[in-house]
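Q: How would the structure tokens look for this protein?
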Amino acid sequence: MQYRKMPKTGDELSALGFGCMRLPMKNGGIDRERAIAQIRYAIDNGVNYVDTAWPYHGGESEVVLGMALRSGYREKVKIATKLPSWLIESREDMDKYLNAQLEKLGTDKIDYYLIHTLNGTLWETVKKHGVKEFLEQAKKDGRIVNAGFSFHGQSADFAPIVDDYDWDFCMIQYNFLDQEFQAGTTGLKYAASKGLGVIVMEPLRGGYLANTPPSAIQDLWDEADTKRSNVDWSLRWIWNHPEVKVIISGMNEESHVENNISYACDSFPGTLTAKELDIINRVGKKYKELMKVGCTGCGYCMPCPVGVNIPGAFNAYNLSFLTGKEGASFSYILSLSGIMADGEKGYASKCISCGECIDKCPQFIPIPDVLQDVAACFEGDGFEERAAGITKMFVDNLKK
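A: Here is the predicted structure in token form.
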């Protein structure tokens, strides 16, 4: 495993961190046995930074991570979790959530504690409620060791937040598609210049960069002299930046863990050639031409009050442009018909444009408007008959 030093703390952190937002699922909840085994495998193979948050998996993520860190594993890692900034209404709330997180995780301290999903407005709100005093007190009494924030705001908000407190680190969304989105490359370099250790989330853009690429993109990858998987290219591009200390990957398949660990071992800063960087930039431009919605599947917009599966709808919509409408239509019906979950249909046409999701979206997507486009794409004439046929076929196959 490759390790990188955090500027202010001196901690040697694994270049790959284990993200607990997308753990393996079973019967509507986390598959605890698999999740614990995956986390422990990663730690046994050098990963020493694990990341979770209050809302992940409906609050279950912190509990499962705490279980995984029993039997001596807690001492091998740095834990990162996050204060749910949007739920804070008083100074007392901050202590309430932190203390509950310590209990859920089964630990007496959080090594890297973040104020979650900050933008300019949320930062002003939590400041008004005393977040600076909270962080200082929590560091003084030992409940947290290092203070940071995760960012999901406009680019103009980033530097003012960096400058407004003596942060130890920050977390930003960064990949070769998001070089000018949110904090972007400018924010990455600014935070590093101020001595913050930078943690990267969404390295694969919600999984899109891990999917089998369309032929137009694969043709570009094939121009490289060294052949790599698209995931390897994506992660290696981020690790090529010396300012990046840790990439958080939400791994939920055993092969994801094994492969990403192998990629982390030799992806050092400054090792990509000029030709390789040019290819990656051209791949990024091609993806932007093909993709229609900048959704990462984070699920912050959920639950929808009328039951629309917003991330699922957007995923299928993007797939219609990346891989073709026929396969995407099948995916849309299969994932939103309810047969894969609780029986409730999550089709885009159910949207009533209430707007509840808009302020929750860290990607600033006009969700109700785009859902209209999704419904128009997939739910035209003959949709009900096609959906009935696909669901029947799938249910019949399950019975065999």
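The mean pLDDT is 89.

The chain has 15 helices and twelve strands.

Upvote if useful.
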